[in-house]
């Protein structure tokens, strides 16, 4: 069926005509032909459970039939600007979308991407407050446009070109890797293995990070600021969670200085965290501006800025928020069992279907596991049919953000695959009774006597033919 698109030909086209700086995942990048809900199919008909789709764009499922039908219908009817004319569907959509927000967040402006939404949010905050400076957290990702690159605070996205004047980064309140934090500090079904000195009702880590926040406000910006932007849980940086009440107090400090609070919900919005529809609700705050993208269009280039009337002058059918909560909590707890079993699984965190699994050399030092070792586990999972994302400063965190239609059975499969990959990693593969210097993923199934049967069982179970397009 796909004879006219052989892998080698596609590879050649990519080499010759697609910018070389564009990154591909995996040693042998996947050539994909089809998607269906939580599944992807490659050119050989091999099926993969896509635990990474939600990070990229797809929230309700690859090629979800309802989304496909609605899009086809609209494309056949009218495709035009939404700003200079009126069109019923847009009005209906704006009404529906804003009904999902608490007062006074009732006005929406549609854009094409998350970067654009954050550009606009910065612009609005500056215009409204007549201040210029915006505070953001280190490790945050808010976009790749020249403005938002000032907010994005991850070295791999930074380049030596002028960008985003007036953006000041402040310390990331990371309760696993940062200097303060531990078991009681965050809102997750799984606590960290790191001990902390918090007591009932008093989070010392939060107090320390807030002191750092104040220090930034007192030293690095003028007395009044335009705003503060944060993701309710950091996405690209690997599902990093802040101590309870950190955002609440940070919002208050910003508002005392005349600034607006912006919640970047590009990754956390639309029920992803399970317990709430919006990430900011998990922190008990109401922002002044909320930015949305990715999940909003299930992969289509669509985004939005939602704000108050003052500043501006569903999807819920499939029960996906509840599924995020139920299946996400189940997955977190299953992964936590692996954390307790394997020394190199340092942290399992997150809420709903936004999960981070941070890999370390050992739990005491929390040193990131060397990237070659993480790659090996990651490639192995792919070979067994599970696609996982990556994140964190050292690429040390597996990011799990599947389409929200994923089931507990899929989770069992994914956890079994991850378990197998970890076991293979911890137990050096044996070739014909001898130890080998080859990495686990370089060993063929025949060579790998110790683990081949289990791996092959998983592989054959998950080889399926493509569904009809
Ligand atoms: N904010 C967050 C939290 C994101 O994760 C991203 C994209 N990864 C963006 C903004 C930018 O969105 P886009 O890629 O649509 O410009």
Task: Please characterize this protein's 3D structure.
The protein is of the alpha/beta class and 469 residues long. It folds into two domains: 7-65 and 320-461, Aspartate Aminotransferase, domain 1 (Alpha-Beta Complex), CATH 3.90.1150.10; 80-313, Type I PLP-dependent aspartate aminotransferase-like (Major domain) (Aspartate Aminotransferase, domain 2, 3-Layer(aba) Sandwich), CATH 3.40.640. It contains twelve helices and 17 strands. The protein has a seven-stranded mixed beta sheet, sandwiched between helices. Strands 1-2-3-13 form a four-stranded mixed beta sheet. Strand 7, helix 7 and strand 8 (260-264) form a beta-alpha-beta unit. The longest helix has 22 residues, at 320-341. It is globular. The structure holds 4'-deoxy-4'-aminopyridoxal-5'-phosphate. 4'-deoxy-4'-aminopyridoxal-5'-phosphate is lined by residues 113-115, 118, 141-143, 231, 235-236, 264, 266-267, 293.
Helix-strand blueprint:
Elements: H1 7-17, E1 32-36, E2 39-42, E3 47-50, H2 53-56, H3 65-77, H4 88-99, E4 105-111, H5 114-129, E5 134-137, E6 167-170, H6 204-219, E7 227-230, H7 246-256, E8 260-264, E9 289-292, E10 303-308, H8 309-312, H9 320-341, E11 345-351, E12 354-359, H10 371-383, E13 386-387, E14 389-391, E15 397-400, H11 408-426, E16 430-431, E17 434-435, H12 452-461
Parallel strand pairs: 3-13, 5-6, 5-7, 7-8, 8-9
Antiparallel strand pairs: 1-2, 2-3, 4-10, 9-10, 11-12, 12-15, 14-15, 16-17
The protein binds 4'-deoxy-4'-aminopyridoxal-5'-phosphate.
Identify the overall geometry.
globular
Report the total helices. 12
CATH superfamily of the largest domain: Type I PLP-dependent aspartate aminotransferase-like (Major domain)
Strand content: 15-25%
Count of discrete domains: 2
Extract low-pLDDT stretches.
429-436, 448-469
Helicity level? 25-40%
* Arithmetic mean of pLDDT: 88
CATH fold-level label of the largest domain: Aspartate Aminotransferase, domain 2
Rg, Cα atoms, Å: 23 Å
């Amino acid at each position: 069926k796909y004879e006219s698109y052989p892998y080698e030909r596609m590879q050649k086209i990519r080499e010759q005509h697609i910018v070389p700086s564009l990154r591909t995942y995996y040693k042998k990048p996947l050539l994909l032909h089809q998607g269906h809900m939580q599944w992807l199919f490659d050119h050989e008909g091999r099926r993969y459970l896509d635990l990474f789709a939600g990070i990229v764009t797809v929230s309700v499922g690859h090629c979800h039939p309802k989304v496909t039908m609605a899009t086809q219908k609209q494309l056949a009817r009218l495709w035009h600007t939404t700003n200079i004319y009126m069109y019923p569907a847009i009005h209906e959509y704006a009404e529906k979308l804003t009904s999902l927000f608490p007062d006074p967040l009732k006005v929406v402006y549609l854009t094409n991407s998350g970067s654009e939404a954050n550009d606009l949010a910065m612009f609005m905050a500056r215009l409204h407050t007549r201040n210029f400076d915006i505070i953001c957290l280190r490790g945050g990702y808010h976009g790749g446009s020249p403005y938002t690159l000032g907010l994005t605070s991850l070295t791999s996205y930074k380049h030596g070109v002028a960008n985003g004047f007036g953006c000041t980064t402040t310390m990331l309140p990371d309760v696993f890797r940062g200097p303060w934090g531990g078991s009681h500090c965050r809102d997750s079904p799984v606590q960290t293995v790191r001990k902390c000195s918090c007591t009932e009702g008093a989070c010392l880590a939060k107090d320390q990070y807030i002191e750092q926040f104040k220090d930034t406000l007192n030293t690095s910006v003028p007395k009044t600021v335009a705003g503060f932007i944060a993701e309710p849980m950091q996405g690209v940086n690997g599902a990093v969670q802040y101590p309870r009440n950190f955002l609440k107090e940070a919002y208050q400090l910003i508002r005392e200085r005349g600034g607006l609070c912006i919640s970047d919900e590009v990754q956390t919005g639309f029920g992803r965290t399970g317990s709430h529809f919006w990430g900011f609700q998990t922190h008990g705050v109401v922002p002044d501006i909320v930015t949305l993208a990715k999940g909003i269009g299930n992969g289509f280039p669509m985004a939005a800025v939602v704000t108050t009337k003052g500043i501006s002058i569903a999807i819920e059918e499939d029960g996906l928020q509840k599924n995020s909560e139920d299946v996400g909590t189940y997955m977190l707890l299953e992964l936590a069992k692996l954390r307790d079993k394997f020394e190199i699984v340092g942290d399992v965190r997150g809420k709903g279907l936004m999960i981070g699994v941070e890999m370390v050399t050992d739990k005491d030092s929390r040193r990131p596991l060397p990237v070659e070792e993480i790659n090996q586990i990651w490639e192995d999972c792919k070979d067994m049919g599970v696609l996982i994302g990556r994140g964190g400063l050292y690429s040390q965190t597996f990011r799990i953000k599947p389409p929200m239609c994923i089931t507990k059975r899929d989770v069992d499969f994914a956890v079994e695959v991850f378990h197998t990959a970890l076991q293979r990693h911890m137990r050096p593969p044996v070739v014909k009774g001898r130890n080998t210097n080859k990495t686990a993923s370089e060993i063929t199934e025949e060579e790998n006597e110790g683990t081949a049967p289990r791996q092959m069982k998983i592989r054959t179970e998950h080889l399926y033919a493509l569904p009809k397009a």
